């Protein structure tokens, strides 16, 4: 038996062990999920958190049926790299890391090491798999003359593979230029440019997966939205992120961005160009601002034994405070309402309090203010006035005063 055949047998045994570990972890995750569903003793909020966490773990461990491990790195003798297996997700036993997630910093040399810049790597081994079976591997020896060309058997196999209806991930064959984009430290907008068929979309999706791995707390708090031009496109790319272990991503087209509203009409090219122009953002901002009005005449509101008036100066102050909050229009309405109600109740308290209440009696003042706020909340005139001065807006067609 040749050395290659011996190595292939050893690698097959190692990969089989990885799948056994994967199956065991998946079974444990499923049991945790089932136990969380059946837990009727804990607090509801804790139970819900356990169910969501265990369900996410089951999904993460269910994506690697094919190509769980796609390569191995061997470091220089006496170096710090050691031997590392690189794959779709990280796997551990009680003592060490069995498989390194492709997004981990230690995996980067698998994609970027060259003969001229080996990054501490002596050998890069790439696996070819069919389902769970390791069928072959290729070795590339780095850090010596003639080693600049990467052994791309895996890449050639991917290029020559039959094309299906869905986009596939490129996690096993990411090239150095693609890796630089995927792992970019740029905290802002990243624009990926290139001609048709150059892999812009699939690289962008791998960057999403990388950011979800490296900044999970941030993105789980705010969420990730992938917008595509139409449903056919979303169906085409829809399996890439799940295949990388990321299933908590929302896909939408521009026509479905607002919940409950689906745009079905098609504009003419001329109208579409106008709507898509950058200047349209200023037009929309002006339209929203135009709906934040001031009262032409004071509006009288009865509060207990007194009457206060909502006047233009108070509304203007509340409007400026809401604008300065830099929140979207509908969210800023809460600031507008807080300032307006504070001003109204302060004036009412000033009239009532000076007659029989000491200003130092803070508790009594706040109790009276609370009573007034409760009255305002159910006062029809006040609610209609607020809706006219700072209306809740939606993308649905509406009248000028909606």
Describe the structure.
The chain has 402 residues and is of the alpha+beta class. 48% of the residues lie in helices and 13% in strands. The chain has 15 helices and 10 strands. The strands form 3 sheets. It has a 6-stranded mixed beta sheet with strand order 3-4-2-1-5-6, with helices on both faces. Helix 6 packs across helix 7 (216-222). The longest helix has 36 residues, at 3-38. The N and C termini lie far apart (81 Å). 20% of the residues are buried.
In N-to-C order, the SSE pattern is HHEEEEHEEHHHHEHHEHHEEHHHH
The SS-based structural class is alpha+beta
Helix percent reads 40-55%
Unreliable stretches: 145-150
Largest sheet: 6 strands, mixed
In total, the number of strands is 10
Terminal residue distance: 81 Å
* Spatial extent as radius of gyration: 31 Å
How many separate helices?
15
Task: Offer a few descriptive terms.
six-stranded mixed beta sheet; alpha+beta
List the SSEs and their pairings.
Blueprint: H1 3-38, H2 44-61, E1 69-75, E2 83-87, E3 91-92, E4 97-101, H3 109-112, E5 121-130, E6 133-141, H4 153-160, H5 176-182, H6 200-214, H7 216-222, E7 225-227, H8 231-237, H9 240-243, E8 250-252, H10 269-276, H11 279-290, E9 299-303, E10 306-310, H12 312-324, H13 329-356, H14 362-378, H15 380-389
Parallel strand pairs: 2-4, 7-8
Antiparallel strand pairs: 1-2, 1-5, 3-4, 5-6, 9-10
């Amino acid at each position: 038996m040749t050395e290659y055949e011996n190595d292939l047998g050893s690698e097959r045994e190692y990969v089989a062990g990885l799948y056994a570990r994967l199956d065991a972890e998946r079974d444990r995750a499923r049991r945790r999920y089932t136990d969380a569903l059946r837990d009727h003793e804990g607090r509801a909020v804790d139970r819900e958190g356990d169910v969501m966490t265990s369900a996410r773990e089951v999904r993460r461990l269910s994506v690697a049926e094919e190509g769980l491990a796609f390569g191995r790195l061997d470091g220089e003798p006496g170096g710090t790299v050691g031997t590392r297996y690189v794959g779709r997700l990280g796997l551990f036993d009680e003592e060490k890391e069995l498989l390194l997630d492709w997004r981990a910093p230690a995996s980067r040399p698998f994609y970027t090491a060259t003969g001229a810049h080996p990054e501490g790597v002596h050998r890069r081994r790439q696996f070819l798999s069919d389902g769970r079976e390791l069928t072959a591997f290729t070795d590339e020896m780095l850090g010596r003359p003639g080693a600049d060309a990467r052994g791309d058997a895996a890449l050639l196999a991917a290029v020559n593979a039959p094309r299906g209806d869905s986009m596939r991930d490129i996690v096993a064959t990411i090239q150095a230029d693609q890796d630089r984009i995927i792992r970019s430290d740029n905290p802002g907008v990243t624009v990926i440019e290139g001609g048709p068929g150059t892999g812009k979309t699939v690289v962008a999706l791998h960057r999403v997966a990388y950011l979800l791995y490296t900044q999970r707390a941030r993105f789980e708090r705010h969420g990730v939205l992938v917008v595509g031009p139409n449903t056919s496109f979303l169906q085409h790319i829809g399996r890439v992120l799940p295949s990388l272990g990321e299933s908590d991503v929302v896909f939408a087209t521009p026509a479905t961005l607002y919940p409950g509203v689906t745009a079905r009409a098609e504009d003419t090219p001329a109208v579409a160009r106008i709507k898509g122009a950058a200047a349209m953002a200023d037009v929309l901002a002006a339209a929203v601002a135009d709906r934040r009005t001031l009262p032409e005449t004071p509006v009288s509101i009865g509060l207990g034994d007194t009457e206060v008036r909502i006047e233009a100066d108070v509304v203007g102050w509340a409007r400026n405070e809401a604008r300065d909050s830099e929140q979207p229009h509908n969210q800023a309405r809460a600031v507008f309402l807080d300032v307006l109600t504070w001003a109204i109740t302060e004036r009412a308290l000033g009239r009532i309090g000076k007659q029989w209440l000491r200003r130092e009696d803070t508790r009594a003042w706040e109790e009276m203010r609370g009573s007034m706020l409760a009255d305002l909340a159910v006062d029809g005139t006040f609610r209609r006035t607020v809706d006219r001065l700072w209306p809740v807006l939606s993308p649905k067609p509406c009248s000028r005063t909606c």
